[in-house]
Design a protein that fits this description.
By secondary structure, the chain is an alpha/beta fold. Helix content is about 45%, strand content about 10%. The longest helix is centred in the C-terminal third of the chain and has 27 residues. It is found in: Cytoplasm.
Length: about 260
């Protein structure tokens, strides 16, 4: 953890999570989970998955965290190895409409199989299949990442097809999960009426729009970063483009 802290002053690191090989003999999963759960009082949104791995202790700690998050009606995003939990313990996300899953093509296929849906059904297009999977999970929101991002919670289905970069670098999904967390936090601000508005959006619409916003922002970041870096693009380059990408998509004024 000390190494991670020195990487950037922007990172706030809490060394509570444990892999089986790193846990002390005296540490129990109850103690480890308690330390992680104690942080929830300070959070609006939880993201689980990037860099997680599939270690048994780590996955079980996250499973306990998800149960606690659900008990508090907090939104959460499952990405990367966090999606393995949705496959192996689907009850953790089943019917929880404040959950967003972000599978790539391979992960999407695994989720389909976990729900007994044939991924090779040629009579169903991708938007319909994404909606079908969302309904099978009881209304969770799914972002099927691809050439076009298909977003559905079974009730609302959107397609995010903004131009992206021509290179896919490992780690770009972290920009998506971070953006989703931000938009989900703003959802709470909307619901708390911290500014004047008509309050005419349903919670289902808010979640779908948060998912679309995160997808659109990530794609625009990728486009801008590739225009500058070309084939040397790295995942971290997308972060530098967030302010311009956000202005281009969501703010008034000239586009940059």
């Amino acid at each position: 953890m000390a190494v991670i802290k020195t990487y950037s002053p922007n990172l706030m690191v809490h060394p509570y999570m444990r892999q089986s090989t790193h846990a002390k003999a005296t540490e129990t999963i109850d103690e480890i989970s308690k330390n992680v759960v104690a942080m929830l009082d300070r959070l609006h949104v939880v993201v689980i998955g990037p860099g997680l791995g599939r270690d048994r202790l780590m996955q079980e700690t996250c499973a306990r965290l998800i149960r606690e998050v659900r008990s508090r009606d907090m939104p959460f995003v499952l990405d990367a190895d966090g999606l393995y939990l949705a496959q192996t313990q689907p009850e953790l996300v089943q019917g929880y409409r404040l959950c967003i899953l972000t599978p790539n093509v391979v992960e999407f296929g695994r989720l389909l199989k976990s729900k007994g849906i044939d991924p090779n059904t040629t009579s169903v297009d991708q938007t319909q299949m994404c909606a079908q999977l969302a309904r099978a999970f009881g209304g969770v929101t799914i972002i099927q990442k691809g050439v076009k991002d298909i977003i559905s919670n079974g009730e609302h289905t959107l397609v995010s097809d903004g131009e992206g970069g021509l290179k896919r670098s490992g780690g770009q999904g972290d920009t998506l999960t971070g953006s989703l967390a931000t938009f989900l936090a703003w959802r709470k601000a909307y619901m708390d009426r911290i500014w004047d508005h008509d309050n005419d959006l349903t919670d289902s619409e808010l979640i779908a729009l948060a998912a679309f916003g995160g997808s659109a922002l990530t794609r625009e970041c990728s486009r801008l970063a590739f225009a500058k870096r070309g084939r040397s693009l790295q995942a971290s380059d997308l972060i530098d483009e967030v302010p311009v990408a956000f202005r281009n998509l969501f703010e008034d004024g000239p586009k940059l």
